[in-house]
Design brief:
By secondary structure, the chain is mostly helical. Helix 1 runs antiparallel to helix 2. The radius of gyration is 27 Å and the shape is rod-shaped. The chain starts with a helix and ends in an 11-residue tail after the last helix.
Length: 122
C-alpha cells in the first residue's frame, strides 16, 4: 500500500516550487514594471542615473520591494502547507478533539486505557 505521507510531501514540494517561481516572477515583474519610473524619479531628484550613488539607492529600493514580496509569498505557502496537513482526530468515547495525532494517542492512553480504577467491581 502507498504511504499516506508521500502524497502530502509531494504536495508540499509542489507548493514550495510554485512559491519560489511566484517570488521570482514578482521580483522580475516588479523590477521591469518600475524600472523606468524609478529611474525617472531619481533623475529628477539626483541628476543623471549614470552616476553610481543614485544607482545604488535604486538597487536598494528594488531589493527591499523584492524581499517584502518574497516574505509574503513564503508565509502564504507555509499557511497553505499547514492547511494541507490538518486532520481531525475525534475521540469516539468522549468529546475530545485535536489536530495533532500524538496528542490524540496520548489522550487515548491516559483517559481510555484499561486500569484498575476504571473497572467496575461487583
Amino acid at each position: 500500500m502507498a504511504d499516506d505521507s508521500e502524497p502530502t510531501s509531494i504536495k508540499h514540494e509542489i507548493l514550495d516550487k510554485i512559491a519560489a517561481l511566484i517570488a521570482a516572477a514578482f521580483g522580475l515583474v516588479a523590477a521591469l514594471a518600475w524600472n523606468e519610473a524609478i529611474k525617472a524619479l531619481f533623475r529628477e531628484y539626483f541628476g543623471p542615473t549614470d552616476q553610481v550613488g543614485p544607482m545604488i539607492v535604486y538597487a536598494i529600493i528594488v531589493t527591499i520591494i523584492a524581499v517584502i514580496l518574497t516574505i509574503i509569498v513564503a508565509r502564504a505557502a507555509s499557511k497553505a502547507k499547514g492547511l494541507l496537513g490538518k486532520r481531525d482526530y475525534k475521540c469516539a468515547l468522549c468529546k475530545y478533539k485535536t489536530y495533532v495525532e500524538s496528542e490524540f494517542m496520548e489522550h487515548l492512553s491516559k483517559e481510555h486505557s484499561a486500569s484498575d480504577d476504571k473497572f467496575i467491581s461487583k
